[in-house]
Amino acid sequence: MFAPKSILVPTDFSEHSDKAIKQAADIAEQNSSKIYLLHVVDWPQQCAVDYCIAEETIQAVVEKSKNEATKKMKEEVEKVLRTKKIDISFEVKSGVPHQEILKEQAEKKVDLIVIGSRGRTGIARILVGSVADRVLHDAKCPVLLVR
């Protein structure tokens, strides 16, 4: 039976991510696994048509977003630790979410990624795609997609 020793849980603080965290915590508790929570702050688009936002403004927005995400991550960890006795850590990065998730998986040699799904269907799924879809197709380890 598959017994992961390290689990990566990307979160966007949505209801879907909360379900993924709970699922990962249950798996971690059963297998004495370590959980790595990850939030990726997506870089805003700098230019649109003929207007560009200054690089300093973009960096300020990203830094503020990272600081807010760090506060939320601490709350998530505390919430999990109230009910589970597991090893859990977190990190906040900036970049393209699916790329950062896959980099984190490779760097930490994660055995399992547990990620929430937004449940897009039809044309929205085809046109927009999702972080979960990209991770699911490109990960070098098993991925548990939580609805």
Descriptive report:
There is one protein chain. With 147 residues, the protein is an alpha/beta fold. It has one domain (6-146): Rossmann fold, CATH 3.40.50. The chain contains 5 helices and 7 strands, in the order βαβββαβαβααβ. A 5-stranded parallel beta sheet has the order 5-2-1-6-7, sandwiched between helices. Helix 3 runs parallel beside helix 5. The longest helix is centred in the middle third of the chain and has 29 residues, at 55-83. The protein is globular and about 55 Å long. The two termini are 23 Å apart. The mean pLDDT is 90.
Keywords:
147 residues, alpha/beta, 5-stranded parallel beta sheet, two-stranded antiparallel sheet, 5 helices, 7 strands
Beta strand count: 7
Order of helices and strands: EHEEEHEHEHHE
- Sheet with most strands: strand arrangement: 5-2-1-6-7
CA distance, first residue to last residue: 23 Å
Nearest-integer average pLDDT: 90
Which topology does CATH recognise?
A: Rossmann fold
Instruction: State the name of the first-level CATH class.
Output: Alpha Beta
Structural class: alpha/beta
Largest sheet: 5 strands, parallel
Known CATH architecture:
3-Layer(aba) Sandwich
